Amino acid sequence: MDTIASLFSFITTPVSWVIVQFHTVYGAIFGPDTGWAWGLSIVSLVILIRICLIPLFVKQIKATRAMQTLQPEMKKIQERYKNDKQRQSEEMMKLYKETGTNPLSSCLPILAQSPFFFALYHVLNSIASNDTIGVINENLLQSAQKAHIVGAPLAVKFTDSSSKVEALGASLTDVRVVTAVMIVLMSASQFFTQRQLMTKNVDTTVKTPFMQQQKMLMYVFPVMFAVFGINFPVGVLVYWLTTNVWTMGQQMYVIRNNPTPGSKAQAEYLERLTKYVTQHNKVGKRRDRAVVKAIVAKGRDRNEFERKFINGLSKASLAAQADGTVIKSDTAAAAEDGTPITATGAPKRQQPKRQSKSQRQHGGATGAKAAGESEPKTSLTKSDEPEDAQPAAAAKKGGAKPAGGTRSKAQSGQRKGPQRPKSPSKK
Hints:
Elements lengths: L1 H6 L4 H19 L4 H18 L1 H27 L4 H15 L8 H21 L9 H9 L1 E2 L2 E2 L8 H6 L4 H29 L8 H21 L4 H24 L6 H17 L5 H13 L5 H12 L2 E3 L5 E3 L3 H5 L20 H18 L14 H9 L30
């Protein structure tokens, strides 16, 4: 570890200078020789570094999501060229170039922190060895050696001997208890950070080797921190615990406000957004408008949670627009009248009520009856009958048959007017 730290000795002077500046501020409040002054100086160093690394963290998020999106294509390439590793690598690089994805971007924050981490380790190791380094002179060196965090000096390790610990004015039991607690907290924070990434911010609809790899790292990283943590000075443990807590909080914020599409976190986010939009009839934040705009642009490619979001707006008589805003839908009046609304927000066409068999059989007679009642009655009275029809009527009463072609009126289904006389039958 000392050899690795010496490789980053070029940055030890800037790191020591930043620590001394923070120590000057906190020393005026808590006292220059206290653990609070030196411990908070290390914590402030971490916060400063992480603020400077926020742009790299944003790139890491984008790169991680891009890698998740490319996993199905990568799997196809691996299966297609599983016997030709060179062609497989060429196709992978071609895919990265076409999509503008860099696999190393997901490691940028860790790689960028490494020089500061090893520089701080080198500074604290020099303090334990009673050697000046960077801008830390003799007076600051003695002050740092007197500083204790909950009874443990900044520069001691879990594996240090009792004589070395007693030389710095502490007991071996206190040092090992403090370092063990810090190592456990450091490993637990790393495990929780990776676990919330796997359980909430991963697209569960795509099963790829990338997910298995992330799941393995969830258990490997905490073990690595536990193994290497026993060789870290207390000050380095403070540094690493602080950066883990910062990463955990930063990731919780990102998962809540900018989740991965198709993940459980996106479902929770869209539920909150639906509730807010339906209550206020508008999209409040610029970030939310960008999300709505992206969902509208997807069209039929929306996932299950995004379709549910659009349907929720439609039920509330709202329509999402291409610019990320929402407006009152034209179907609001239909909803107020009780007309059903489809998932797309359009009024639902009502189907006629299905009739029973008896209703269908008697429907024609009922309709004809109703039609007959609506028509005016045109029955002929005695005064209305034609004169030539009166003898025929009288003859009918007496049993005589009327002459052919002199019927009073045409029967139903017969042609009106003179009828063709029947030919005489041959006897």
